[in-house]
Amino acid sequence: MEQLVKLAPLISTLVIFSGFLLALFQFKKQLAYRKIENLQKIWKDFINDRELFDLFSALDNHDEKKSVKRAIHTSNKTKLKFLGLLDEVALLVEKGDVDREYAIYLFQWHFFYAYKKSSTMESIWQSLGGVIEASKPYWLKSARLAEKCNSHPD
After folding, report:
1. What is the CA radius of gyration of the chain?
2. Among 3, 6, 19, 70, which residue carries the largest CB count within 10 Å?
3. What CA–CA distances, in Å, run from 85 to 15, 41, 141?
4. What is the pLDDT of residues 87-119, one digit of tens each?
């Protein structure tokens, strides 16, 4: 009995420590879930917006001339929504609210076409102030994330 009394503080410390570890594990699990949920919301916004989806389809077309022509004729409103969505992804990645790897996995081609591939970049930015606009401070977060995306040649 005397030994049990001596072990009681140790046992209670172990119980408290295991409870702390379990709480930490649950917190990390919830944080990871929230990060995926944030990215999923943006992905749904993209997929469910027909104009954004059509713009991406135009950019992703293997017929370069057709792709550029369709993108050029897309409304500025749609182009700005597309770029705004990419900016939202970049902002969430920078804040740590979304895992960079998952964001790049889902949106790498979007960033590539908007910030890296010269022909599609030109077709997007032409009516929004030109390609030089893409390097302005407002779009810097998106441009930085685009650098982390695939680097396929033109």
Report:
1. 23
2. 70
3. 46, 11, 12
4. 999 999 999 888 899 999 999 999 999 999 888
Q: What is the DSSP string of 31-85?
A: HHHHHHHHHHHHHHHHHH-HHHHHHHHHHT-S-HHHHHHHHHTS-HHHHHHHHHH
Helices 100-115 and 140-148 pack at an angle, to 10 degrees, of 110
What's the one-letter identity of residue 132?
Answer: I
Q: What is the pTM of this model?
A: 0.77
Report the alpha-carbon distance of residue 28 to residue 32 in Å, rounded. 6
C-alpha distances (whole Å) from 29 to each of 22, 62, 91 are 10, 40, 22
> Phi-psi bin for 121: left (phi > 0), alpha (psi -120 to 50), beta?
alpha
